[in-house]
Design brief:
By secondary structure, the protein is mostly helical. It is 81% helix and 0% strand.
């Protein structure tokens, strides 16, 4: 319907929904305070139902805006994301589902991603980076496995706390790759084997400076491609449907202007 399309396309509508989501997030955060919850718990519950009602009305307007084909609303993945959160939020906040219902309220904060175009672009970039990241993860897994087995054999007797088993060795390597006090582990190994440092230094170079930067390179590359695709979409020539839509809107405006002129002539 035209009125629904006009509302959905308006900036005030989108900005209002963003403001409601931010306000909802603030209320959820205030509800974690035991003092505020004891004093204003009833007010928080009213606010929760009010926010949920606003989100339901928003979804309904967007579905109506797609008339005469309302199911086109679900062709947009972000609309499905928003609608799913609304459905989950309808869970009763009593009994065994009480905790799940509270977590569902928290999920509504994620709707900020769908309302802000730049955040949507970043999430879409991360999703499309997953196939490329799989290759980097495979390379990292091979490096981790080789160094974990080597570390077990080299330092098992020297430092059993960090190299007791293959699993513990992998956890130790994960700690090293995050650069969290990795030098303490290296110095413990060097007390018995002074030449242990090449093992740690080489792993830090490969694991942190090479592999981690590969992750960053993959994300940045996909981000550039996503931006280029969005720019290409914005510069696409109008389709026949777009032209027909513009013609109908122009015709409607001309019809209204003609009726106004005729009314002025009669007066």
């Amino acid at each position: 319907m035209p009125w629904a399309k006009h509302i959905v396309a308006s900036n005030w509508f989108n900005h209002s929904i963003t403001g409601v989501i931010v306000l909802n997030a603030i209320v959820i955060g205030l509800d974690t305070s035991e003092t505020l919850h004891n004093q204003f718990g009833w007010l928080f519950e009213i606010g929760n139902y009010l926010f949920l009602t606003i989100f339901i009305v928003e979804a309904a307007i967007k579905i109506i805006a797609e008339s005469p084909k309302p199911l086109r609303y679900f062709k947009n993945s972000w609309n499905i994301f928003d609608f799913s959160i609304i459905v989950i939020s309808l869970l009763p906040a009593t009994g065994q589902l009480a905790m799940l219902a509270r977590l569902a309220r928290l999920l509504r904060v994620l709707r900020l991603i769908s309302t802000l175009p730049e955040l949507r672009l970043i999430v879409e970039t991360l999703v499309r980076s997953i196939p490329s990241m799989a290759n980097v993860i495979a390379l990292m897994s091979i490096i981790f496995y080789i160094y974990a087995v080597a570390g077990f054999h080299l330092f098992n007797e020297i430092d059993p706390t960090h190299w007791r088993t293959l699993g513990i060795s992998l956890l130790t390597l994960f700690r090293i790759v995050t650069l969290e006090d990795w030098t303490d582990i290296m110095y413990a190994a060097m007390e018995v084997g002074p030449l242990a440092w090449p093992y740690f230094v080489s792993f830090v170079i490969l694991g942190t400076f090479v592999v981690v930067n590969l992750f960053i390179a993959v994300v940045i590359n996909n981000l550039d491609e996503a931006k280029a695709e969005r720019l290409a979409d914005l510069t696409l020539p109008p389709t026949s449907d777009d032209i027909l839509k513009e013609l109908r809107e122009t015709q409607a405006v001309l019809t209204r202007m003609r009726s106004k002129l005729e009314r002025l002539d009669r007066e």
